[in-house]
Amino acid sequence: MTQVTPKPQGVWAWIWQRITAVLLVFFLGTHLFVLHYVPENMNINFLGVAARFKSVLYLVVDSGLLAVALYHALNGIRNVLFDFVADDGKRRALTWLLLIAGIAYLIWGAYALTFFVK
Amino acid sequence: MPLTKHTIYPGRGLGMWAFWLHRLTGLAIAGYLLMHILVISTVVGGAGSFNEAMKFLKAPVFILLEMGLLAIILIHGFNGARIVLFDLGYGVKKQKQIFVTLMVLASIPLALAFAVALPHIFV
Q1: Would the N or C end of chain B have less CB density within 10 A of its end CB?
Q2: Residue B71 and residue B32: Cα distance in Å, rounded?
Q3: How confident is the model at residue A9 (pLDDT cuts 50, 70, 90)?
Q4: How many domains does chain A have?
Q5: What is the pLDDT of residue B8?
Q6: Contact assessment for residue A24 and residue A69, using Cβ atoms and an 8 Å cutoff
Q7: Do B44 and A74 touch (CB under 8 A)?
Q8: Complex-level ipTM
Q9: What residues make up the domain containing A58?
């Protein structure tokens, strides 16, 4: 097994991973329920999504989901990678890489969502 | 506090499998999320390209794969509740029973989703 010497990491990343986890139970729970447990919604198309986005609730749920899920996913990947990478410099580089990827995805995803609202 | 060398997850038994299951399902969902954002963003090319992508993904094989995805999400979510519980200081000594109970509970929403999806799998 891989041996690493852990350095104290920011406790906030760990706390935020838990906060986003709890938020995801509600956000993703709603998202999945609406799309997979309501038979009428199984046929996904542009007009259907655009109609849903007329409600503020879906707008909040879906854009919130985008940000929260991206944070939880990319920080989760970081947690796994850090168990295999002990070097401080490499850890910093990985953090920046994931942060930039997260921001790029967030901007692109939010931009795409506006097309349903127009 | 000085930190000493440690081995990645030194445990064994059911708890170890729960740990690895959480990581593998997490990585799988993270991969899906990045793909999902790209698929939904076909809407940037107009309503037509979005509808085309959705029509393609309505094929029974994708609905079946979605059920696999849902199973993975439910495992990760229910086991995640177990992790949060432990962090708050509850249930560590009963971790195995809690894991089994949560996995049994997770199978209920999975079965429900299967029932809803069935007409879309066998068309």
Answers
A1: N
A2: 13
A3: low
A4: 1
A5: 67
A6: yes
A7: no
A8: 0.89
A9: 42-117
